[in-house]
Amino acid sequence: MDDGGPSRLRPFPPAEPVPATGDEPPAGASGGVSPLRPYLLTGGRTRPTADPPLELEAQLVTTETGQLAVARLAYERCDILRPCRSPLAVAEVAAKAGPMDFDGSAQPRRRPARPPPRRGPGARRRSADAGPPRGPASEPHRDRPLLERVIRGLQAFE
Amino acid sequence: VDSKPSNSGHRSPPLPVKILIAGGFGVGKTTTVANISEIPVLTTEAAMTDLATSIDPIPYTPEKATTTVALDFGCITIDEEIKLYLFGTPGQDRFGFMWRDLTAGALGAMVVVDTRRMDDCYPAVDYFERAGLPFVVAVNMFDGQLRHGLDDVRWALAVPEQVPVIAYDARVRLSIRDALLTVLNRALAADN
Predict the structure, then answer these.
(1) I need a labelling partner for A103 at 20 to 30 A (CA). Which of A11, A149, B39, B142 fits?
(2) CB A92, CB B33: distance < 8 Å
(3) Cα Rg of chain A (Å, integer)
(4) In chain A, what's the furthest Cα-to-Cα distance?
């Protein structure tokens, strides 16, 4: 944040966003923020390790290991693990954890929702026995039973 | 490595589905998401600075002090296994880079229109047409009034017959619900 004020929002994003190249732009490039901090936050990762990348609505759940570790963690890590005791969407976690800072591919640059290092405590997007990640399809949905179910659910909504 | 999640053995996380709420500045996207979401809507909003005002003027709604620069995010629990997420997305061309990610896996989209500034929604209509995403044009009735006939709106936007053009009130929960149902029914029809 350039203004140093209490707002956790930038005034507005760059007028001409750089097309996503898959490369993480240096964090200091856009706002005089030290690149060291994001480097530490991501454990040195400079690009997503999830393939395909997590969607904004992908569900995150803190593992038992993560729960046990919460007391030892601070700042962002704690802010991410604590609310994810029940499943939360990536966008929700990101919005609660801090400024949303888009890097051109709608991924929060602070990447609070990246999968944790393999051995570390962390949030996972699926339970151990839940099968494939519960992310959306990459194409628009063409799943009739699912659509019908959402319609029924929404009709009951008051 | 194989640490169990906290709810191990009970049920897997809900399946997320999403509908996009698109449209120009100040058409009522934030209001729409906020009035139907069961969680407080998460919005990245910033006050319009003088600079931004010159870039994105809103001549017909001068009282609007802030405008959405990133996205609004809301949620409706459909049942135990499905959560419907709503993403209010900026309508300007310069935010188009976000749309690809937002469109992926979406059930459909609702293009919110303010008939006083019709051309603001062209980029969204163009994008969803090209992406093959089922969408509905929803005219927000400011002050509960419809200023132009829906046929005129359809003509102005040049959308094909199968795309529903409806009127709704972004301040009324059930009106939003019905608009979303129109989106879903359009998605069902597009499936045929």
Answers:
(1) B39
(2) no
(3) 17
(4) 50
Q: A45 at the B interface (CB within 8 A)?
A: no
Contact B97 A62 (CB under 8 A): no
Which residue in chain B has the smallest CA separation from A57? B16
User: Is the bond into A108 cis (omega within 30 degrees of 0)?
Assistant: no
The reply to whether A151 touches chain B by the CB within 8 Å rule is: yes
Pair A52, A136: CB distance under 8 Å: no
**DSSP letter at B80?**
S
Are B24 and B82 contacting, i.e. CB atoms less than 8 angstroms apart?
no
Q: What does the block give as tokens for B187?
A: 């998605």
Q: How far apart are the first and last CA of chain A?
A: 40
H or E element at residue B109: strand B108-113
In this prediction the pTM is: 0.69
Can you tell me the distance from the alpha carbon of A34 to that of A23, in angstroms, rounded to the nearest whole number? Answer: 18
Kindly give, in sequence order, each residue whose CB lies less than 8 Å from that of residue B128, ignoring residues fewer than 6 positions away: B22, B103, B109, B111, B134, B135
b/e A97-111 (16+ beta carbons within 10 angstroms → b) = bbbbbbbbbbbbbbb
Q: pLDDT for B37-91, tens place per residue?
A: 998 888 654 444 434 444 555 555 555 555 445 678 899 999 989 999 999 887 6
Site from B12, B41, B86 to mutate, A interface, most A CB atoms within 10 angstroms: B12
Please state, in angstroms and rounded to a whole number, the distance separating the CA atoms of residues A82 and A84: 6
* Chain A to chain B Cβ contacts (< 8 Å): 201
**Contact of B153 with B115, CB cutoff 8 Å:** yes
Across the interface, whether the CB atoms of A134 and B13 are under 8 A apart is answered yes
Asked if A76 and A98 count as a contact pair (C-beta separation under 8 A), the reply is yes
Which residues of A fall within a CB distance of 8 Å from B44?
9, 95, 100
Among candidates B49, B132, B191 on the partner chain, residue whose Cβ is nearest the Cβ of A144: B191
Q: B179 to chain A nearest CA, in Å?
A: 11
